Amino acid sequence: MGGRPTGADASAVGRTDLVNWIPESADPWKLLSHAAVFVLPSREDPLPLVALEAGLYRRAVVAMPTGGLPDLLADGRGLVGSRQDVRWFVAAVEQVLASRALAEDLGQRLHEFVRTHHDVDVIAPRWLRAVSDAAGR
């Protein structure tokens, strides 16, 4: 995680104040714990696990509407734009960065949802029951 993609230049859009390039790291969790907002611009992904991981770290997520993200981030658990609306996306990131209270609220709501619905301690017993039922045990 980290690094700077070839040709990436925040100055091209006049927003060098919003982007801090960091060195690559073998420990992404350390980096995620310091993030002000988790930005997920993916256009194709059924359910990016990284959004669940951001929730575990109570990070606000701003995302494009791909796969299961609209459901995951519904009800105040994150901000999801409409497909291809880059201006909305930038404005949403700015909104979260401008309001620590909003960032904390979104992050906390997502954290609670992830712990309640996606944590291995919740999911593993459900899968075990489903497999046992399917096997007739």
Query: What is the CA–CA distance across the termini?
Result: 44 Å
Number of helices, where a helix is a run of at least 4 consecutive DSSP H or I residues: 6
- Element-level helix/strand string: HEHEHEHHH
What is the typical, i.e. mean, pLDDT? 87
- How much helix, percentage-wise, in residues? 40-55%
CATH superfamily: Glycogen Phosphorylase B
Instruction: Give the CATH level 1 class.
Output: Alpha Beta
Spatial strand sequence of the major β-sheet? 1-2-3
- CATH topology, which one? Rossmann fold
What is the domain tally? 1
The CATH architecture term is 3-Layer(aba) Sandwich
The major sheet is characterized as: 3 strands, parallel
Question: How large a portion of the residues is in β-strands, by DSSP E?
Answer: 5-15%
Radius of gyration: 17 Å
Unreliable spans? none
Name the shape in a single word: elongated
Global structural class? mainly alpha
Query: How many individual β-strands?
Result: 3
Domain Glycosyl transferase family: 14-109
GO molecular function, one term: glycosyltransferase activity
InterPro entries: Glyco_trans_1 (IPR001296)
Write the layout of secondary structure elements.
Layout lengths: L27 H5 L5 E3 L8 H8 L4 E3 L5 H4 L6 E2 L5 H13 L1 H18 L2 H16 L2
Parallel strand pairs: 1-2, 2-3
InterPro entries: Glyco_trans_1
GO molecular function, one term: glycosyltransferase activity
Pfam families: Glycos_transf_1
